[in-house]
Amino acid sequence: MRNYDSGPPPSTVINQNETFANIIFKPTVVQQARIAQNGILGDFIIRYDVNREQSIGDIQVLNGYFVHYFAPKDLPPLPKNVVFVLDSSASMVGTKLRQTKDALFTILHDLRPQDRFSIIGFSNRIKVWKDHLISVTPDSIRDGKVYIHHMSPTGGTDINGALQRAIRLLNKYVAHSGIGDRSVSLIVFLTDGKPTVGETHTLKILNNTREAARGQVCIFTIGIGNDVDFRLLEKLSLENCGLTRRVHEEEDAGSQLIGFYDEIRTPLLSDIRIDYPPSSVVQATKTLFPNYFNGSEIIIAGKLVDRKLDHLHVEVTASNSKKFIILKTDVPVRPQKAGKDVTGSPRPGGDGEGDTNHIERLWSYLTTKELLSSWLQSDDEPEKERLRQRAQALAVSYRFLTPFTSMKLRGPVPRMDGLEEAHGMSAAMGPEPVVQSVRGAGTQPGPLLKKPYQPRIKISKTSVDGDPHFVVDFPLSRLTVCFNIDGQPGDILRLVSDHRDSGVTVNGELIGAPAPPNGHKKQRTYLRTITILINKPERSYLEITPSRVILDGGDRLVLPCNQSVVVGSWGLEVSVSANANVTVTIQGSIAFVILIHLYKKPAPFQRHHLGFYIANSEGLSSNCHGLLGQFLNQDARLTEDPAGPSQNLTHPLLLQVGEGPEAVLTVKGHQVPVVWKQRKIYNGEEQIDCWFARNNAAKLIDGEYKDYLASHPFDTGMTLGRGMSREL
Fold first, then answer.
1. Are strands 80-87 and 184-191 parallel, antiparallel or unpaired?
2. Are the C-beta atoms of 111 and 266 separated by less than 8 Å?
3. Is 538 helix (H, G, I), strand (E, B) or coil?
4. How many CB atoms within 10 Å of residue 712?
5. pTM above 0.70, yes or no
6. In sequence order, which residues have a C-beta less than 8 Å from that of residue 713 and are 6 or more positions away?
7. Number of alpha carbons in the 13 Å side-chain half-sphere of residue 167
8. Is the pLDDT of residue 457 over 60?
9. Residue 551's closest CA among 375, 380, 411, 354?
10. What residues does 549 pair with on adjacent strands?
11. Element (H, E) at 101
């Protein structure tokens, strides 16, 4: 990970003056590959501060909208009363628990002498380190680390019991210490699963927690992996003045926990209330905040009743470690004017049609976020529907991507006849999304690229899926050939190589898993990542995993695989069907379908993985190569079995199941011994008959296995091609 103190990463361009900053970070695929094999995947964090002349904050006004930034500094930290609640159920075994323990060791050393803390481990039993909060001393930190070190994973997950015990510890300490408003009570709660022991009903857990906390305990939750009940954690935090974070299966849980804790490690104020005269301000965003942490910022936006107002009365009340504070003042408001920014582009301003009011946009963004939070917390269906409609209307009006809206990219591409509006269904939220553009009103792009949404996609048999099993369909001769490739974890396979002609390359990276018991293999391998590189008409690339799709065609998009969405630009269309498949269409003549295989409770030999299917290969050239590409636009035929005449070899359905007869397949001039088999494709939904080439398809494919290994996911080189001699 790059240290931000060492300067910005390559390709970063920063332009700024006294009132404006413009930051561009646009690494090429090559630059990303040099940093990490799979490219850059992470958060782009900008750390900045502004000059503040008043302790009550800074207010900006533009065309009747205002924004108030409140970020006091040089305040003494509030004491923290914190309980760390760690899931130690059986599912945390291995790396997750080890990383979490290491992170907690670091966090314990960061506690201040005025803080109080305790630790709870929970599975089907609630294991409390101490039955009261402990002051921070070298001895207590050492003892806490020893307790964490000896935690072992076992049993189920009693989320309700763990939360109730943690809240009781905090309430008991506050009631007997008299510290009250001069401290902040926090729970840092980490789990990787769903409630399976004790109270398991989500609404009852939420009600129990809300009644016990009574707004006096803030709960910060972290969900690890794909099996966690993230919606429950999100509601627990929203209803109890906290925040939530999700750590994906492949991410480092420890570093995520430390980063999350850094956001809340230094509380400076509690019970913050910011008031404006009702006669001056309407439709203000949230003005009550339970806590203010060092390094954060409170932002409020709203509408001014009088656009010509030159002063705005502001009152701030809050508590810090010493006293209850009240700030009152009339803040001069400085309307911003249209002008030029540091890039030479017109600054927002004016009332003309097409002008962008960035303060109005910020107000709409904050309002939409608050509507979404209210929607998530509400259990009243009519109210939820009203909140959904308001959030959706704002999002569409101001072009925000939300769980209630979908996204389409506009591009100057020809209109495609016979294609209709795209439709999808949000897997996370339920309502049908509204298709929208992410371009601003000032652009004049071409017509939208639209295509019907197809929940069940018709695709060919030519594919690689499973362990990995390859299937090649020869429709002219009505033959299907199959073979296996036993690679090594980390190998990157060239599946389709046509960079020089059509400009398309497809690479697939393998992930390993133990073999099933009593199997003939030592290990299994699956496709973990599919990388599709395109250099015509515009250079772009896609990186697809079971959890997300990265599309980089100049503007980088990250699309979660658990929500349906369609994006398209410059002859490239990507359609995600939630937790099912990803369809990639290139210039209307090349189409790939990537099936997403997810396991709710994977066995040790199972991994979330991908299947790659070629739906349309018309746009690929006759020079196309790769493990699958070399067989496109080719034909095959069967000859007699070397040991004797065969029977109806072009119709293997008439042959007996099991160890079928052997034959010789002729393809591309190769004579390949094959045996008849049956194989399941399309996620096991269809069984096909095929002629199987043994020994890693040694006599079927050009060259050797090593010739199909790419050096990195973005490698477009091709070591073999049409007319090249085979290496036998």
1. parallel
2. no
3. coil
4. 17
5. no
6. 33, 37, 38, 39, 492, 507, 509, 529, 531, 543
7. 21
8. no
9. 411
10. 544, 559
11. helix 95-110
8-state DSSP, 127: E
Residue closest to 527 by CA, chosen among 469, 481, 569: 469
- State the amino acid at position 58 in one-letter form: D
- Rounded to whole angstroms, the Cα distance separating 98 from 208 reads 31
131: tokens are 């039955």
Distance (Å, whole) CA 403 – CA 445 = 25
Give Dmax over CA atoms of the chain in angstroms. Answer: 100
Dig out the tokens for 512 from the structure. Answer: 């390993």
Q: What is the CATH number of domain 80-265?
A: 3.40.50.410
Among 658, 667, 664, 659, smallest CA distance to 645 is for: 664
Buried-state track 625-658, b at ≥16 Cβ within 10 A, e below 16 = bbbbbbbbeeebebeebeeeebeebeebeeeeee
Shortest CA distance to 493 belongs to which of 728, 715, 170, 254? 715
How far apart are the C-alpha atoms of 137 and 128, rounded to whole Å? 19
Residue 311 structure tokens? 């002063």
* Residue 364 CA: distances (Å) to CA of 194, 393, 439: 35, 11, 17
Long-range contacts, stretch 224-227, CB < 8 angstroms, 24+ apart? 224/96, 224/100, 224/190, 224/191, 224/192, 224/249, 224/253, 225/96, 225/192, 225/249, 226/547, 226/598, 226/608, 227/91, 227/192, 227/193, 227/194, 227/600, 227/601
**pLDDT tens, residue by residue, 372-423:** 888 888 888 889 889 988 988 888 888 888 877 766 555 443 333 332 333 3
What six digits make up the tokens of 641? 């079995």
pLDDT digits (tens, 9 = 90+) for 663-690: 888 888 888 899 988 877 766 667 788 8
Q: Which pLDDT belongs to residue 567?
A: 82
- Asked if 112 contacts 49 with a C-beta cutoff of 8 angstroms, the reply is no
Q: What is the mean pLDDT of residues 613-631?
A: 91
Q: DSSP for 332-373?
A: EPEE----B-TTSSBPS-SSSTT---HHHHHHHHHHHHHHHH
Cα separations in angstroms, 204 against 155, 160, 199, 214, 474: 22, 9, 7, 15, 58
Cα separation, 716 vs 728, in Å, equals 24
Distance separating alpha carbons of residues 358 and 305, to the nearest angstrom: 19
Beta bridge partners of residue 270, listed in sequence order: 291, 319
Q: Alpha carbon 688 to chain centroid distance? A: 35
As a residue count, the chain comes to 728
| Assigned token pair, 87 | 């899931």
For tokens 């900006």, name the residue: 60
Contact (Cβ atoms closer than 8 angstroms) between residue 489 and residue 502: no
Is pLDDT above 60 for 445? no
pLDDT at 116: 93
Helices vs. strands in the chain: H and E counts, helices first: 9, 36
Handedness of CA 257, 258, 262, 264 (dihedral sign): positive
> What are the structure tokens assigned to 83, written together?
């309980």
469-486 average pLDDT score:
87
Q: How far apart are CA 719 and CA 707, in angstroms?
A: 6
DSSP 62: E
* Domain ranges, ordered by start, for the chain: 80-265, 366-406, 463-641+660-708
Taking 3-state DSSP, the helix, strand and coil percentages for the chain, each rounded to the nearest 5, stand at 20, 35, 45
> What is the distance between the alpha carbons of residues 223 and 703, in angstroms, rounded to a whole number?
47
Token duo for residue 405: 């809206």
d(C-alpha 630, C-alpha 616), whole Å: 15
Which CA distances in Å does 491 have to 268, 528, 714? 50, 11, 13
Q: Which two tokens stand for residue 317?
A: 């009340």
Average pLDDT, the chain: 79
Name residues whose C-beta falls within 8 Å of residue 385's C-beta, 6 or more positions apart in sequence.
none
> For residue 300, what are its two tokens?
């409020």
The alpha carbon dihedral of 488, 492, 498, 499 has a sign of negative
